[in-house]
Write a structure and sequence with these properties.
Number of domains: 2
Oligomer: single chain
CATH architecture of the largest domain: Roll
Shape: elongated
Number of strands: 7
Strand content: 25-35%
Mean pLDDT: 79
Order of helices and strands: HHHEEHEEEEEH
Number of helices: 5
CATH topology of the largest domain: Nuclear Transport Factor 2, Chain: A
Length: about 210
């Protein structure tokens, strides 16, 4: 009888379990699709070097903190920064490619503000021919005005203890230090050779 009761209880519970399993997930806020589309447009424009197209998605009062810790304010400030770094007479960057990957869905606040964050893999080609990849972290603040999502703030940074520039500096220092013994040995050998030639010259002069 106990077994029968247990079976009846399980059968009675099955419909409940079935309903819970079939409960549809909450629909995604359509703002997320708009934000993803905006991100794709910005990345595509930047990778093509079209800063004007990318700035269409920037708020007029945008604040951008770049990887070199330089802060740019407003669309004109951001454009001036990119022009100076990539097209001006003292430009440093020849080209770059970025790929932003968010960690999660944008956190939305009140329907008109959002915060997104994640990592990015950036590839740089400098005007001196140096090429390197940099893994960075970023945080983006978004605002919605007139039905359109815009970038109000963007901050990006790299790990100060592990980044390609630091690694290259360590590598150069390693080879510099490794070359010290070689320099000392060569200097010692040249010194002995010089002393021998001086001694030979002195002996020859004394005989004459």
């Amino acid at each position: 009888m106990k077994i029968v009761r247990i079976i009846l209880v399980l059968l009675a519970a099955c419909p409940v379990f079935g309903l819970r399993a079939q409960t549809p997930a909450a629909p995604e806020d359509p703002d997320h699709a708009e934000i993803r589309a905006m991100r794709d447009h910005v990345i595509d424009a930047l990778n093509k070097g079209d800063i004007e197209a990318a700035l269409q998605y920037a708020h007029p009062k945008i604040v951008l903190t770049a990887l070199n810790a330089e802060v740019c304010r407003g669309r004109e400030g951001v454009k001036a920064y990119f022009d100076r770094m990539m097209t001006g007479p003292k430009r440093i960057v020849k080209s770059f490619q970025i790929d932003l990957k968010p960690d999660d869905l944008t956190i939305l606040y009140g329907g008109d503000t959002g915060v997104s964050w994640g990592d990015s893999l950036n590839h740089y080609v400098l005007t001196d021919g140096l090429k390197f990849d940099a893994n960075a972290r970023w945080t983006c603040t978004l605002v919605k005005e007139d039905g359109k999502w815009l970038i109000a703030g963007f901050h990006t940074s790299v790990n100060i203890f592990d980044n390609p520039i630091l690694n290259m500096a360590k590598h150069s220092l390693y080879w510099a230090l490794a070359g010290i013994p070689v320099v000392l040995v060569v200097g010692f050998a040249l010194g002995r050779l010089f002393r021998r030639k001086v001694s030979a010259y002195q002996e020859t002069a004394a005989r004459s």
